[in-house]
Amino acid sequence: MTALAGVLLLAACGGGAQKGAQAPAAPFVSAADVRPASYAGSTPRFKALLYYSDRVEEAHQQFSHQAVEFFHRLTYGEGWIMDVSQDLLAQGDLSQYDIIIMPDAAPSSARDRKAFEEYMDNGGGWLGFHAASYNDRSTGWDWFRNFLGGVSFLCNNWPPQPGLVEVEGHDHPVTRNLPDEFVVPETEFYQWQPDPRSNPDVQVLVSLSQKNFPMGLKDIVFGGDFPVVWTNRNYRMAYINMGHGDRCFSDATQNLLFVNALRWVVSQSPKGDPFER
Ligand code: ZN
C-alpha cells in the first residue's frame, strides 16, 4: 500500500469529515505513521548462526530441525542471513554474527565454550530454546550458569503436554502484542533452582500459569514458579523454555513470541538497531 492509499483508507475508516465540521486539532495518524515498509534492498539487515546438534534426544532433534525450517522461512527475501551448523566455529569468528540461535543444544567442548563466552561478553546476541539451557552439577560450566541468571535444572513435568502460560506485562517488545494468557503446544516444562525470578538482573516475561497444577501423568508437578521466557539484563539474550518435540511450531501465538524474541535480541545490537536502517 502506498502512503497516499494509506491516508485515503484512514479517512474512510474514520467515517469521513462532515461538511462544515471543524478539522480536528491534531490528526489521529500522521502521514509519517502510514509510510510504506522500508526495504533494505539487496543488503541483509543482520546475520545469524543457528547452532544445533543431532547428538541429543530425538524430541530435541525434532524441534531443532523444525527450528531450522521456521527460521529459514523468516529469511525469505534475504532480509537477513542465517548460517546453520552443528559446528559452532564452522565459519570461524563468531563476532560476524548479530545473534546465535540455539534450539536445544549448547556448546560442550572447551573450545566452543570459550568462543561463546567471548562472543557474549563482547555484546553478542543469543536466543536459546528449551534444552539449550539445561545444566546441572555435571555440566561444569559456571559461566553459562551465571549467563542464564545463576540457575540450574531442577525438575520437569512428564509426559510433555500443552500448558497455559501467562504474559507478565506488555511493556516489553517480546510480549507487547501477545495476549495476557495463551496455551502453548505440547512441550516439556523445566523448573529451575534457584528461581530465575530471585535474580534482580533477570526479567521474567512469561511464566507457566498456576492453573495448570497438578501437572503431569508420570512425573507430577504440584506447583511452584515456572518462568518460561526470561532475559538476563547483563547480556543481550532471551531464553524460551518451549522446544520439545514436533508440535512447538503449530501455534501462531507462540510463533509470534519466537519472532518477537529474535527481533528484540537483534534490535539491541551494539552496532545499532538494524531495523531502524
Ligand atoms: Zn525436552
Oligomer: single chain
Please provide the count of β strands: 11
**What would CATH call the class?**
Alpha Beta
Strand order of the largest sheet: 2-1-3-4-11-10-9-6-7
Q: Please name the CATH architecture.
A: 3-Layer(aba) Sandwich
Percent in helix:
10-25%
Major β-sheet, in short? 9 strands, mixed
CATH superfamily descriptor: Class I glutamine amidotransferase (GATase) domain
Extract low-pLDDT stretches.
1-24
Question: Which structural traits does this protein have?
Answer:
Rossmann fold; 5 helices; binds zinc ion; two-stranded antiparallel sheet; alpha/beta; 11 strands; 9-stranded mixed sheet; 277 residues
What does the model show?
This protein has 277 residues and is α/β, with parallel strands linked by helices. It has a single domain, classed as Rossmann fold, CATH 3.40.50.880. Helices cover 22% and strands 23% of the residues. The protein contains five helices and eleven strands. The protein has a nine-stranded mixed sheet, covered by helices on one side. The radius of gyration is 21 Å and the shape is globular. The two termini are 20 Å apart. Zinc ion binds next to helix 2.
